[in-house]
Specification:
Blueprint: E1 7-12, E2 20-25, E3 30-36, E4 39-46, H1 51-61, E5 71-76, E6 89-94, E7 110-111, H2 123-126, E8 141-142, H3 143-146, H4 149-156, H5 158-163, E9 167-173, E10 179-185, H6 188-201, E11 210-214, H7 220-228, E12 233-236, H8 242-251, E13 254-260, E14 263-268, E15 273-274
Parallel strand pairs: 3-6, 4-7, 8-15, 11-12, 12-13
Antiparallel strand pairs: 1-2, 3-4, 5-6, 9-10, 9-11, 13-14
Helix pairs in contact: 1-6, 6-7, 7-8
Length: 278
């Protein structure tokens, strides 16, 4: 748990009171280098934990893999440094039928925890096309069920409760609201990649009939990651961006923002949200 939520002595100041020294729990952040076939593809800042899910989900988001059988193996390696394994370098082996990542889309340099698109080599490389048709998914979810999801996610965010510094992403069943997978990370995009990677490794793609809930805003990159996994509804507790709304509308994804019970705002494909009058 120390790498996920390390502790540090801090000085707490409150006006009108004496300074107090105490131990505080922080959100862990370390680099992870993702290699494919021994070649570096990206370095991302993440919270350690569920690294295999993160790497697998990253490859789904990049359009490299789309099924469990596309990915043969994953292993930690020591990297270039001499000394003990830091578990910050992960090498993935693709199945023979899977084409290696396009070099023009490779990101063999730094990606911050706040931006999952940083490091893209060109504007064209930003956009990836999903192999799954979201419009073929008949998913429609009761608004009352969606309203229960933020509290369910918050209850499941154990590390956030200790640190207050992690984003959360949850995959929910669109019929029952059951949380199928919850992941936390210092990066919003990493939390989603961890959820998608879990689904890939479980053989669940495409994720028809499910809802993706994120604890922050809905950006273009998160809508794109959801589409790449075949998720037909994305809900966020904060606002979406204009490009996120456009992409959701184009792909047939239901997009809900400001999901803060008892209200929410539906920005795209409103037919996917059922209300008592509809």
């Amino acid at each position: 748990m120390s790498r996920v939520a390390p502790e540090r002595r801090v000085l707490r100041l409150t006006l009108g009171e004496a300074p107090a020294t105490r131990r505080d729990t922080l959100a862990g952040e370390e680099p992870l280098e993702i290699r494919v076939g021994g070649r570096s593809m990206a370095v991302t800042m993440r919270t350690p934990g569920a690294d295999f899910d993160l790497a697998a989900g990253f490859l789904v988001s990049e359009g490299v893999v789309a099924a469990r059988e596309d990915l043969l193996a994953m292993r930690y390696c020591a990297g270039a440094e001499v000394g003990p394994n830091t578990y910050n370098v992960l090498d993935l082996a693709l199945a023979p039928h899977v084409a290696a990542p396009n070099e023009s889309a490779a990101r063999a340099f730094f990606t911050t925890s706040s931006c999952g698109l940083c490091g893209k080599a060109s504007i064209d490389a930003v956009r990836t096309r999903s192999r799954f048709d979201l419009r073929a998914d008949p998913l429609a979810v009761e608004a009352s069920l969606l309203a229960t999801l933020p509290d369910r996610l918050r209850e499941a965010q154990t590390v956030f409760s200790a640190t207050g510094g992690l984003h959360g992403a949850a995959l929910a069943d669109g019929a029952s609201g059951e949380l199928l997978c919850v992941r936390e990370d210092v990066g919003r995009h990493n939390a989603v990649d961890k959820v998608v990677g879990w689904a890939l490794r479980e053989g669940r793609l495409p994720l028809s009939g499910t809802v993706l809930l994120v604890s922050g805003r809905a950006s273009f990159e998160l809508v794109q990651k959801a589409a790449m996994a075949g998720i037909a509804m994305l809900c966020a507790v904060s606002a979406p961006s204009s490009l996120a709304v456009e992409l959701a509308e184009e792909t047939g994804m239901g997009l809900v923002g400001f999901l803060r019970p008892p209200s929410m705002v539906v920005y795209a494909n409103a037919q996917r949200v059922l209300t008592p009058t509809r």
